[in-house]
Write a structure and sequence with these properties.
Blueprint (H helix, E strand, L loop, with lengths): L11 H4 L5 E3 L12 H5 L24 E3 L11 H6 L6 E8 L11 E7 L4 E12 L5 E13 L2 E24 L4 E25 L5 E23 L7 E23 L5 E26 L5 E23 L5 E21 L2 E26 L2 E16 L7 E15 L4 E11 L10 E3 L4 E3 L8 E11 L4 E14 L2 E5 L5 E5 L4 E13 L7 E15 L6 E2 L5 E12 L5 E12 L2 E3 L2 E7 L3 E11 L2 E8 L5 E10 L5 E12 L2 E9 L1
Parallel strand pairs: 2-4
Antiparallel strand pairs: 1-3, 3-4, 5-6, 5-35, 6-7, 7-8, 7-34, 8-9, 9-10, 10-11, 11-12, 12-13, 13-14, 14-15, 15-16, 16-17, 17-20, 18-19, 20-21, 21-24, 22-23, 24-25, 25-26, 25-27, 27-28, 28-31, 29-30, 30-33, 31-32, 32-35, 33-34
């Protein structure tokens, strides 16, 4: 969604917010960007964060990008998708602004404000082909983005098809509780997902300064996973055979939303009222089958079939104004109605064993009052006080509705140390959203696990963070953040009465703490065209294990990650080289009777060679998985719980093939 910089209210200049840096199109010329997404990716030390996609309701802003000073009002589109619809030729400048200095509640830290115009018709297209050893060619990646303007009406949209295919081969070994190997398996995994999509945003800039937006989007996803195994039973030869596990998911999503923004001086100066309405739907069919065939007892076919339909309706009003003291105020009221229907059945050899029908309804209401002001020329503050009230009812089960009232809010302070360095701190009381999937029962046929739906309440957190930011077009830029969170009512797998297991809230609090950094080093003064990047994450978490009573990490919590990269635009030539090395690790995942630990034994390494002007187009050759990325998985199983006897150990090691891709992009 784009708008003329001359007519768009709420730009940094209109709000009195002084950008820390302004990047003109000339700064990005050496990269030959095709879209605004390509330009933002090259801003030193800047990282896109936050998204409302996947969360119910619209809520306060978290995505740190603005288009002509306005917050994108679509939920289904991610930041890069939104920015990819804006041709680079339409971008007049990109301003990096302190979120605390804007009248948009929820935004803090670095915010990229893309000031863009629209011509009669412009856009970009891309097409890619990828080839991986052991997999089918990936030929279905293609996309078209366009932007057009006629009179006061602007249209921005995209249509395309994305595809992702890969395969992994590996070995799996099974051991009994005494360490004796019982089975030896070879396996092959193949994965294929297809995603056709279309998006359209229409903007009407009226002569009286009112702005109307209409957002339409639709996406279909078809995902297929197949795991084929050959196994040898080393204890009982009659148990030797093969198995095939197949998972298919067909999903259709659509979203219809709109907003109307108008000037309305009720409480102060520069008042604006924004009314937002949105509806979205997701319909997913999930089919999982497991065919097991050995000599004794023979062939068995298990089938798990589930259909999940979720719908959301949102109405929201936002009013912003400036007081006579120059403070920015914002008040918002939002209501959301959500429904979730799940129908599933489990059968063995065509004999129906279990049926489950779950309907969950949620009504949510939230309100916030926010205030932003400059304490002095170097220091800005933003406070937000609000509350959320929700009623969650599992209609398919007897029992009272869950009613929750949760206060929430934050205070953020930003202090500019000098022209480049900024220190920021924030304390927030947040309320998490429940995953509707926690209310339904699921079955993993290949893993031989069942999870019963639970009755849970939302987690709450006290979040503390301190961040040091440096923003400069050359030299070292980036941010370094320390954080500490207190988690109330953490959700983990517990043992229910009757022996089943599923998600439930723990009585004791949890904690999350760590550090993260995002750095860019522009080395133009030493080697023109060279820049280095690095992202780092280090974290720990603590909860009391509901089975053992001892302290451990939150299940599957990310522990550390690094991502190192470089780009060299060869001076006086159309060529560039990019490289990236990344690796991560997570804590074990825990059930009441097992643990699973995944280890990435080698980093993922890739190189890209770019021709920025091949017959007017940009051509990229990318080689991935140069270091032969491998995954090792250890699964320990116990009876009756993890405090009991270990009866099985599984060791799996998989390796993915090397990949080469070719991509063409161009603008019009």
């Amino acid at each position: 969604m784009t708008a003329s910089a001359q007519t768009a209210p709420g730009t940094a200049a209109d709000d009195g917010a002084t950008p820390t840096e302004v990047y003109s199109p000339e700064y990005f010329e050496q990269f030959s960007p095709q879209t605004a997404s390509d330009m933002v990716a090259q801003i030193p030390g800047f990282e896109i964060r936050g998204s409302s996609d996947g969360e119910r309701g619209f809520g306060q802003a978290s995505l740190n990008i603005l288009i002509n000073g306005r917050r994108p009002s679509s939920k289904s589109s991610g930041a890069n998708e939104i920015l990819s619809r804006i041709p680079a030729s339409n971008v007049e400048r990109i301003e990096i602004v302190k979120g605390e200095s804007l009248d948009i509640p929820g935004l803090s830290g670095q915010v990229a404000n893309i000031i863009a115009k629209s011509g009669e018709l412009s856009g970009s297209w891309n097409a890619a082909a990828r080839f991986e050893e052991g997999s089918q060619p990936q030929l279905g990646d293609i996309g078209l983005n366009f932007s057009a303007k006629r009179g006061n009406i602007q249209a921005v949209g995209s249509v395309g098809h994305s595809q992702f295919i890969f395969s992994e081969n590996g070995n799996e070994q099974f051991f009994d509780g005494e360490g004796l190997q019982t089975q030896d398996r070879t396996e092959r995994l193949s994965f294929d997902t297809q995603n056709p999509f279309a998006n359209l945003n229409l903007t009407l800039n009226r002569d009286n300064g009112h702005i109307a937006n209409l957002n339409l989007s639709a996406r279909k996803q078809n995902r297929n996973t197949l795991v084929q195994e050959q196994f040898v039973n080393l204890i009982n030869p009659a148990g030797t055979g093969a198995s095939v596990a197949a998972v298919t998911q067909d999903q259709i999503n659509y979203e219809i939303g709109g907003d109307y923004d108008l000037g309305l001086d009720l409480l102060g100066n520069s008042g604006r009222l924004k009314l937002i309405a949105l509806h979205r739907s997701e319909d997913a069919d999930f089919i999982s089958s497991f065919l097991f065939d050995d000599t004794a007892p023979g062939q068995a076919l298990q089938l798990f079939d589930q259909n999940n339909v979720s719908k959301e309706y949102i109405g929201r009003g936002e009013y912003t104004w400036k007081s006579s003291q120059g403070h920015d105020w914002a008040f918002s009221v939002e209501g959301a109605i959500n429904t979730f229907d799940s129908v599933s059945d489990f059968s063995l050899n065509d004999a129906l064993l279990v049926e489950d029908d779950v309907r969950v309804e949620e009504d949510r209401f939230q309100t916030n009052l926010s205030r932003s002001w400059a304490v002095n020329p170097r220091t800005t503050l933003q406070t937000s006080l609000g509350a959320e009230y929700s009623v969650i009812d599992v209609v398919s089960e007897d029992g009272d509705s869950g009613k929750f009232f949760r206060p929430k809010g934050f205070i953020t302070a930003s202090h500019k140390l000098d022209s480049a360095w900024t220190l920021r701190g924030q304390v927030e009381r947040s309320v998490s959203q429940l995953d509707f999937g926690d209310f339904i029962s699921t079955v993993s046929l290949a893993e031989e696990t069942e999870t019963q739906g639970g009755n849970v309440k939302p987690e709450q957190k006290w979040e503390f963070e301190a961040e040091l930011i440096k923003q400069a077009p050359k030299g070292l830029s980036g941010r370094f953040k320390l954080f500490y969170d207190i988690v109330e009512d953490p959700i983990e797998q517990v043992l229910f009465e009757g022996g089943a297991q599923g998600p439930s809230n723990l009585d004791s609090n949890g904690a999350v703490y760590g550090a993260e950094a995002n750095l860019t080093w522009v080395l133009d003064d030493a080697v023109k065209g060279l820049r280095l990047t690095g992202e780092f994450f280090l974290s720990e978490s603590e909860i009391d294990d509901p089975i053992t009573g001892t302290s451990r990490n939150i299940s599957n919590w990310p522990l550390w990650e690094y991502d190192l990269g470089f780009r060299y635009d060869i001076p006086d030539s159309p060529f560039a080289i990019e490289g990236e090395v990344e690796q991560s690790d997570s804590a074990k995942s825990f059930r009441i009777d097992e643990t699973v630990e995944n280890n990435f034994l080698d980093p993922e390494v890739e190189l890209a060679f770019i021709h920025k002007d091949l017959f007017g187009m940009q051509f990229t050759v990318r080689v991935q998985n140069i270091a032969d990325f491998r995954l090792q998985r250890e699964r320990l199983r116990f009876t009756p719980t993890r405090t009991g006897t270990q009866f099985e150990r599984q060791i799996t090691e998989r390796q993915r093939g090397q990949r080469i891709s070719f991509e063409l992009t161009d603008t019009f």
